[in-house]
Design a protein that fits this description.
45% helix; six-stranded mixed beta sheet; 388 residues; elongated; 2 domains; Purple Acid Phosphatase, chain A, domain 2; alpha/beta; 12 helices; 12 strands
Length: 388
C-alpha cells in the first residue's frame, strides 16, 4: 500500500486543482450573471462544490457501499457537470479573443452593456450545453456496445483461425455500478459464445467485503477455455491480494506474470498476463515482470498478452509478442480528455501496431468517476483471431 504521506500529498494536489477549476468557473459562469443575488447564489454553489468534491470523492472510496451508493452518484454526477462545464468554457475562449480583436482593431470604444450581454450568452450556452451533453453521456455510459475486431496473427495455428475472445476491461464495480448492471454484461458476453474471456484489469473500486456479491456474476461467464484476469491500478487501491483470492475462489484464473497454453498441443497458442504497469509501487511482491511471464516459451507459438496499461507494449515489442490486449485509458471517457491521455499512454483506443506487435486498447466496459461518457462509448469487445 502507498504511504499515508503519499495519500496526503495526492489529496492536497487534487484539492488545489479542483479549487483552480472552480475559480475559473466562477469567473466565466457566475460573474456574468445579471443580478447580485444570482451571483451570490452562484458563488455559494461554486465554493460548496469546490470544497465538497475532494471530500465526497475520497469518502465514496472509504465508506461501505451501502452509503457510497448514495453519496457516490451525487458526488461523481456533479463532477461530470463540472468537467463538461470546464471543457465547454475553455472551448468558448476563442469567442472572447475574437470579441477583443474586433474591439481593438475596429477602433470602437467597448460597450459595457454589450460586453455583459455577450458574456451572459456564453455562460448560458455553456450551462445548457453541459446539462444536455451530460444527460446524453449518462445514458451512453451505462450501455456498452458490442465491438467486433479481427486480428490476423502469423503464428496462429490454422485450426484456431476464427478463435473468438471476449475482452472486458475497466468494469469498475463500486459506488456507481453494481451487480445487476454486471449481470446484464455477463448475459451479453455469454450470448456471443466466446472461446475465452479476458478481463484486463480495473474490475473493482472497493473492498471485497463490500463488493463480493456485486462481482459474483463474473463466475457465470461461460466459455470453452475459461475466464482470465490481470490486475489494473484500481485493484491496488482496493486490496489486490484480497481480490486475487476472491476471483480465484469464484473460478477466474488470475495471471500474475505467468503464461498458460490455450488449445491442444501444437494446435494452440500461449496466453500471458502481467501485473499492472505500476504495481511495484504497492510492494508485497507485486509488479509487472514480462520476462518472468515469457521465460522458457517456444517462440514458434503465437502469444497473446493481457496487460492493463497500453504502455506495457513498449516492453512487449521486444519479446516477440503477437497481440496485446489492454484497457486503462477509457478512450478518454469524456472528449477531449483523450488528448491528455495520449501524454501518458502510447495508445488510447482501438487497434494499433508497434513494430510487429499489435495492440488493442479497450475503451472500457464501465466508467470511473463521472457517470458520463462523451465520444468514447463503453464496449464489450469480441476479438476474432485469424491466421495471417
Amino acid at each position: 500500500m502507498r504511504s499515508p504521506l503519499a495519500f496526503v500529498a495526492f489529496f492536497v494536489v487534487f484539492s488545489a486543482l479542483v479549487a483552480a477549476v472552480h475559480v475559473y468557473l466562477d469567473r466565466r459562469l457566475v460573474q456574468p450573471l445579471p443580478t447580485e443575488r444570482a451571483r451570490r447564489v452562484g458563488r455559494r454553489v461554486v465554493w460548496v462544490s469546490g470544497l465538497g468534491l475532494p471530500i465526497g470523492m475520497f469518502a465514496a472510496s472509504a465508506l461501505p457501499r451501502s452509503l457510497s451508493a448514495i453519496t457516490g452518484p451525487l458526488t461523481f454526477g456533479w463532477m461530470g457537470l463540472i468537467v463538461l462545464a470546464l471543457f465547454l468554457s475553455l472551448g468558448s475562449e476563442p469567442l472572447r479573443v475574437g470579441r477583443w480583436a474586433y474591439e481593438r482593431f475596429a477602433a470602437k470604444a467597448p460597450d459595457p452593456g454589450r460586453r455583459a450581454f455577450f458574456e451572459q450568452g456564453i455562460a448560458g450556452g455553456v450551462g445548457f450545453a453541459s446539462l444536455g451533453i451530460g444527460g446524453y453521456g449518462l445514458v451512453e455510459a451505462r450501455t456498452p456496445q458490442i465491438v467486433r475486431v479481427t486480428v490476423k496473427l502469423k503464428r496462429l495455428p490454422a485450426a484456431l483461425s476464427g478463435f473468438r475472445l471476449a475482452q472486458l476491461s475497466d468494469v469498475h464495480i463500486g459506488p456507481l455500478l453494481d451487480g445487476a448492471w454486471l449481470e446484464d454484461v455477463v448475459r451479453r458476453v455469454n450470448a456471443e459464445s466466446p472461446d475465452l474471456v479476458a478481463i484486463t484489469g480495473g474490475l473493482v473500486d472497493g473492498r471485497v467485503a463490500d463488493l463480493s456479491k456485486h462481482v459474483a456474476p463474473i463466475a457465470r461467464l461461460a466459455s470453452k477455455h475459461g475466464t482470465f484476469f490481470v490486475t489494473g491500478n484500481h485493484e491496488y487501491y482496493s486490496g489486490a491480494d484480497d481480490w486475487i483470492a476472491e476471483l480465484g475462489r469464484i473460478g477466474v484464473r488470475v495471471l500474475r506474470n505467468e503464461r498458460v497454453a490455450i488449445g491442444d498441443g501444437a494446435d494452440g497458442f500461449d496466453l500471458a498476463g502481467v501485473d499492472d504497469f505500476k504495481a511495484h509501487h504497492f510492494g508485497g511482491g507485486h509488479g509487472a515482470d514480462l520476462a518472468r511471464a515469457l521465460a522458457g516459451r517456444d517462440e514458434a507459438r503465437e502469444l497473446v498478452l493481457l496487460a492493463h496499461q497500453p504502455k506495457e507494449a513498449l516492453r512487449a515489442v521486444k519479446h516477440n509478442v503477437g497481440l496485446q490486449l489492454s484497457g486503462h485509458t477509457h478512450g478518454g471517457q469524456i472528449w477531449p480528455f483523450g488528448l491528455f491521455v495520449k501524454l501518458d499512454q502510447p495508445f488510447v483506443a482501438g487497434l494499433d501496431t508497434l513494430g510487429e506487435l499489435q495492440v488493442y486498447t479497450s475503451r472500457g466496459t464501465g466508467y470511473w468517476g463521472p457517470p458520463v461518457r462523451v465520444a468514447a462509448p463503453p464496449e464489450i469487445t469480441i476479438v476474432t483471431l485469424e491466421r495471417a
